[in-house]
Amino acid sequence: MITITSSLPENPITYASIDFTETDEPRSTDFDDVYFSDCGGMDETEHVFINGCDLKKRLPASAGSLSGNGTGPREYLIGETGFGTGLNLLTLMRFYRLLEEEAETLPDITFLTVEKYPLSPDDMARAHRHFPQLEKESKELLQALFSRPLHTGLNRVVINSHFTLVLMIGDISDCYSRISVNQPVNSWFLDGFNPKSNSDMWSLQSMKLLVNLSTAGTNIATFTVCREVRDNLREAGFTLVKRRGFGRKREMLTGFLASE
Ligand SMILES: C[S@@+](CC[C@H](N)C(=O)[O-])C[C@H]1O[C@@H](n2cnc3c(N)ncnc32)[C@H](O)[C@@H]1O
């Protein structure tokens, strides 16, 4: 079982205040940026993060690698920077549900993520209404996540028999420097706001924290190919590969940690 512990204090939280645009899309007033793409947030998540991290291959392969030896399916740890509306998690849950129909075995998923400005239950539900295909997943997440008060530091939320969410509330530099995990992160979804307005999410210091929680073979995906992000990821130790981007973006970035 994946065990994650944190030495951060557990204090009451206040929810972020966010705006909704004319088309009812959530927008951060602090960062003057949108939470998801206006040309198909769920499709972007699938393209950038799920395909970018090769999960269609990696999930069945990681379960298959241990099947038959009596230990059961291995657990797969996905890390994220920036939980926001939870859209990446919902899209992943739907992807998993569809993949279950064709894959023999799949590992259970722990989704480790961080959020400095958590959305209120009402704002999160309102953001989810853009995605009727994710209604089932949204219901499950909202029910599990807000069944008791959230606090700063580590919030462990069992969503269903295959998904556990570990939501760290606080700044990335505190949260990811003050946790211990008994298994390295297998794949990272790097999803801060625009690096120009949200540089601490993409700093070298933050990228090094991700490396500390990773191992050889850990892979990453992100929507941005911004020069500073590439430099920081490389300096932290990732080998990078550009791929075709989503929508109006020509390119996106994937990468992995090579063995030393
Ligand atoms: C692009 S949004 C994430 C979108 C999200 N993955 C989704 O599915 O809706 C980036 C998120 O990072 C959070 N964030 C920004 N700076 C942060 C920091 N220093 N530490 C932790 N979270 C941060 C923002 O509040 C925001 O929710």
Automatic annotation (TrEMBL):
Superkingdom of the organism of origin: Bacteria
InterPro entries xref list: MnmC-like_methylTransf (IPR008471), SAM-dependent_MTases_sf (IPR029063), tRNA_MNMC2 (IPR047785)
Pfam families documented for this protein: Methyltransf_30 (PF05430)
Keywords of the record: Methyltransferase, Transferase
Single GO term (MF): oxidoreductase activity, acting on the CH-NH group of donors
GO biological process: methylation
Domain MnmC-like methyltransferase: 133-256
UniProt name for this protein: tRNA U34 5-methylaminomethyl-2-thiouridine-forming methyltransferase MnmC
Species annotation: Ruminobacter amylophilus
Taxonomic classification: Bacteria, Pseudomonadati, Pseudomonadota, Gammaproteobacteria, Aeromonadales
